[in-house]
Design brief:
Helix 1 runs antiparallel to helix 4 (about 140-160). The protein has helices at about 10-45, 60-65, 85-90, 140-160, and strands at about 65-70, 75-80, 95-100, 100-110, 110-120, 125-130. The strands form three sheets. The protein has a two-stranded antiparallel ribbon with strand order 1-2. The chain has a two-stranded antiparallel ribbon with strand order 3-6. The chain contains four helices and six strands. By secondary structure, it is an alpha+beta fold. A hairpin with a 2-residue loop joins strand 1 (about 65-70) and strand 2.
Length: about 160
């Protein structure tokens, strides 16, 4: 036994699905923009203002940026930094590193202060490092995971109600 059906006005149905798809893409992109802005603020305010890492120069905290890309039906929200040493803080580091030759200012010798500070040249050397991770990006994402899921779910539900 077979059933045959004919949809009358299939072009209209297809057009409505296409409009809905574009609407969903736009709605999710808008929501993703809001999410990444909130995540960026959370990282700077709640992770890099002394809670996870102390700040000295504001270089890392000021470099936190967000971006949302949309291509081939995929929407990606990203919060990150381009600061070179950020990965060492985020993931930790264990191993050896080479310290380049540099100048160092000394103000005391054998515990006694010098009348005038002197600059000495420190030769290149290798040191072993065991630096624990101080996650500020991954932990912020974990903190906001449930809020992110709610935001995306509400965005789609809101669009489907229209």
């Amino acid at each position: 036994m077979s059933v045959t059906a004919t949809i009358i006005g299939s072009e209209n149905v297809q057009a409505r699905f296409e409009r809905c798809q574009n609407g969903i893409q736009t709605a999710i992109t808008d929501r993703m923009n809001r999410i990444t802005i909130k995540l960026q603020a959370h990282v700077a305010r709640d992770k890099l203002s002394g809670q996870v890492l102390r700040f000295r120069t504001n270089n890392l905290r000021g470099s936190i940026h967000q971006e949302v890309t949309s291509e081939n039906g995929s929407i990606v929200g990203m919060v990150g930094t381009n600061v070179e040493y950020a990965a060492r803080h985020e993931y930790g580091f264990q191993g050896s590193e080479t310290v380049k030759t540099h100048l160092r200012t000394i103000r005391q010798v054998f515990g006694k202060p010098l009348k005038t500070p002197k600059q000495i040249e420190v030769q290149q050397f290798t040191r072993n490092i065991n630096y624990p991770e101080h996650s500020f990006l991954r932990s912020a994402l974990a903190d906001m995971r449930s809020d992110i899921m709610v935001e995306l779910t509400e965005g789609v539900a809101e669009l489907l109600k229209k």
